[in-house]
Amino acid sequence: MPIAPPSAAPAGPSTRRRPRETSRLAPGLALAAVATVVLLGASRVLAPLTGGSVSPLVLALVAGAVVGSVLGRDVPRRGGAARFAARVAPGTDWTARTVLRAGVVLLGLQLSVPDVLALGWLGIAVVVATVTCTFAAVLALGRLLRVPRATALLVATGFSICGAAAVSAMTGVLERDPRGGPGAPARLRDDVAAALALVTVFGTLAIVALPALAGALGLSDHQAGLWIGASVQEVAQVVAAAGTVSAAALATATVTKLARVVLLAPLVAGAGVALSRRAARTVVAPDDPGQDVTPARRTPPVPGFVLGFLAAVLVRSTGVLPDAVLDAASQVTTVLFVAAMFALGTGVDVPRLARTARRPLLLGALGAVVVTGVGLAAVLLLVP
What we know:
globular; transmembrane helix; Sulfate exporter family transporter; membrane; cell membrane; transmembrane
């Protein structure tokens, strides 16, 4: 009997699975892609009106929450809206997870270690002190106020590092928590929405408050730039605030902000290690009392996308990439983050968020006071 050539062999299960998986993700991916294009255009229109203080990531999350509320994704409904929500959910979930991590990796190409070292050891000390004290203080305040653990962790990361991008990176860690249980993805989307809202509100207030306070305190341009770069959450907010002081303050604030972003990797990696250790100590009670208690599944201590972020920082620091490539990577990073934030927003439970927002709002206010106060104290003590 003649043997059929390899090309005539029937397709295996994995081959048949790929088109099926692609078709399952396609509606959600298409929705996220269209929304990203619209939102990027809208953010360019709104930028002159807001002074560039509103991040397109936050705008994307709000738009996603509106779409999710209309579709009623997390609310039992019938009819066309429910069917459409069910069709787009796999694709938006994939976008919120995979595209988000790709954006964090590319974010590393915006950071150069030599630029950060140019701040000098005093400037770096200001950054490290502000980030460390703010992160620890916000977590402690979260426990005191009985704010959910995930919400406090996201707020602490956003306020201490770099706003929406830092919240996004920490979201990738919390998604891997095996102890979340039923409903954990929906709760996490609400936590992300709360953290991003707080970053936007208090960062916008800082644009007005910090330049005025720097002038009243008689800070030099260098001191004002360090303070603003170490205290304000979003890069766009840092630029808007420091730009009203002077060009020298803007240059210092921008580099200081980049130094904070460099600390994103060790902070997220540390959170991943802590999560992995806690998960290893978690046990699952067996249904049969005679069975052995089985430890929870371990997660890798350092997420792969964090290692990718560090690799991107190292590549950028070598100086081998031309400016055109770096500019293109920056644009792609924004596109990926906007798509991921929109996808996360589609699952936000707006009524639940409104009911539970009082304590996170107080935590955000206290966090703003902490990061501003610690940054100012560090500048006055360390920088002449």
